[in-house]
Inverse folding.
């Protein structure tokens, strides 16, 4: 199964808001509310930022929010900060009941 | 603290076997499903395998089916990944990750990750 589709890169200035999209199909994002988002800094392990479309784990800033419409999920980061610069990955479960990741998006804070 | 620590990564020749381990601490290991996720150099994340909290069931991505086996020993708080018939495209950092949350009984988000262990397969 092909990876979920994410933009290769996005950028924004400190204080701005950015949105990263994650496009799938009616066999994954479109059918299940099982989308999660991960932040990965260079050389580090990924960190869970959003689970089940729009839920934040304890300790994750409320500047991070998630949503979904049809076959596309989105991660929005508001009040952009320098420390948000990282790679971001979406994941969704599929009709095979296994998870599938997106290709990743590099966020640059200008 | 809640922690996962992988080990066993190495440089191996194509066609050989390798076993990775993932030691858990700080939580009730036997109460959680655990996943293996890998990341090839400079590439994105790829889900590899999952095992239920009690070891009763497992699942694999298509590219490793029949070659990789995930297992666990809840008495030792340890997860394993037995990898056979290794290929160059298995070269990656392998992470173990705890499954948690999930709107469905069979779905997870990966809320705790290890630091990863590098597997390099040479031809």
């Amino acid at each position: 199964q092909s990876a979920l589709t994410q933009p290769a890169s996005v950028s924004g200035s400190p204080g701005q808001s950015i949105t990263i999209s994650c496009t799938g199909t009616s066999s994954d994002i479109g059918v299940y509310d099982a989308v999660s988002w991960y932040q990965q800094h260079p050389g580090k392990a990924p960190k869970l930022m959003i689970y089940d479309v729009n839920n934040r784990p304890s300790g994750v800033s409320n500047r991070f929010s998630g949503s979904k419409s049809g076959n596309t999920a989105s991660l929005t980061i508001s009040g952009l900060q320098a420390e948000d610069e990282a790679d971001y990955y979406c994941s969704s479960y599929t009709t095979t009941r296994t998870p599938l990741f997106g290709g990743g998006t590099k966020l640059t804070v200008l | 603290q809640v922690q996962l620590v992988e080990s066993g990564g190495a440089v191996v020749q194509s066609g050989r076997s390798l076993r990775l381990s993932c030691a858990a601490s700080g939580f009730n290991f036997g109460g959680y499903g655990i996943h293996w996720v890998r990341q090839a150099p400079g590439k994105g994340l790829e889900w590899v395998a999952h095992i239920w909290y009690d070891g009763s069931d497992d699942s694999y991505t298509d590219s490793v089916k029949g070659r990789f086996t995930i297992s666990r020993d809840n008495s030792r708080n340890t997860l394993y990944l037995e990898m056979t018939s290794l290929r160059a495209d298995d070269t990656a950092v392998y992470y173990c990750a705890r499954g948690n949350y999930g709107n469905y009984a069979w779905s997870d988000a990966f809320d705790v990750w290890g630091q990863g262990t590098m597997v390099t397969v040479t031809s």
In short: The beta strands of chain A are 9-12, 18-23, 35-40, 47-50, 64-69, 72-77, 86-93, 99-101, 105-109.
